[in-house]
Amino acid sequence: MAIHHQLYTDDPVRRLRLRNRYLFKGRLVMETALHIGGGKLTLNSSRSPIVLTPENIPFIPGSSFKGALRSTVEKLVAALAELPQPRLRTCGLIEREQEELEQIQHEEGSLDNICPTARQRTIAEERRQRGELDLLPILEQLCHTCRLFGSPFSASRVNVNDLYIPEEEWNGIIQLRDGVAIERDSERAKERLKYDYEVVPASTAFDLEITLENATREDLWLLSLGLSEFVNGFGSIGGKRSRGLGACRLRDLRVYILELEGEEDADGKNGRLSPEERARRLQRYLLGRSPEEKFHRVEDGEDFLAKQIEQLFSAN
C-alpha cells in the first residue's frame, strides 16, 4: 500500500494512528549449534566468545534474527520478481552504480521505479543542490522490503525482541570447539593458526516475539514468506554457517491479531468496523493482561502463514 499525498492532506495524523497490530510468538529451536559473537573477551580462554546476558546466559539479539529474516525474505522476493506479474519488490540493499542510474534515467525518463535505498547518493546530491527534499515521494517509491524492515528514509514496521532461553530449559552448557585456518592454495592447515570458539549446543530453544504494526497486505506477505522458511527448517542464524552452525526451526508459532479499522471477509475484501466495535477492541487491548486477553483473535501460526502465501499468489 503506497503512501499518498492526499491521505496526509485529509488526515495528517493518520500515519501516527494505530490501525492494526500483529504479535508473532513462537520458540526457535536450534537443530545445530549456534555461534553469535559477543564482541569482547570473557573470563574463559576462548578467542571467540558468544554473546551473553549479564547473568552469563546465551541469547540471540533481536537485530541478529531480524537481519537473518530480512535476508531470507529478500532472496524469496528476488525469485518472485521473475514471475509474470510480480507483486513484491526488493532492492536487496544494493546501491546501484551511477552509470547504471544514468542509463535508466535516459531510457525511462525518471528513477521513480528504483528504490531510494538503492540510489542514496543521487538523493543526497539532490538534497545538497535544492537545500531541501520532499520526503513523501521518496516514501512512495520505497520497495516493499524497505517499507517493512526499514531504510535510511523510513523506520521499520516490524520489531523483533531479543530471544532468550526459557529459564526452566537452560542447562548451563556452553561448548568450546576447535578450528584451524586453511591455506587455500595448498588446502592444508596453516601452521600456528589453530583457534577455538564458543557455541550454544544443538536443541537449545529461544523464545521468539515479533510485533508488526500498521501492516499492509504486502507486509504480511513478506513476513509470512520469511517465517515460513524458519517454520520448515530452512532458516539459519548466527555465524560460521558454512561449518554447519545456525540451522534452526521455528515451532509452536501463534499469531495474535488486533484490527482496528477493518477485517477481510470471505472474498478477501476489507469491511469497515463500526465505531462501537473499534472502541470495544481498543478497550480490550488496553485492559488485557495477556496476549490472549489483549488481542481479539488468535490463529495457528502455520495456518496463518499458509493463508497469506496463498493470497500472495492469488491476489489480482
From TrEMBL:
InterPro entries, alphabetized: CRISPR-assoc_RAMP_Csx7 (IPR013411), CRISPR_Csm3_endoribonuclease (IPR052216), RAMP_III_fam (IPR005537)
Domain CRISPR type III-associated protein: 30-249
UniProt keyword terms in alphabetical order: Antiviral defense
Pfam families xrefs: RAMPs (PF03787)
GO BP annotations listed: defense response to virus
Highest taxon above the source species: Bacteria
NCBIfam families: cas_cyan_RAMP
PANTHER family assigned to the protein according to its UniProt record, in alphabetical order: CRISPR SYSTEM CMS ENDORIBONUCLEASE CSM3 (PTHR35579:SF3)
Name listed for the protein in its UniProt record: CRISPR-associated RAMP protein
Species name: Thermogemmatispora aurantia
Taxon lineage: Bacteria, Bacillati, Chloroflexota, Ktedonobacteria, Thermogemmatisporales
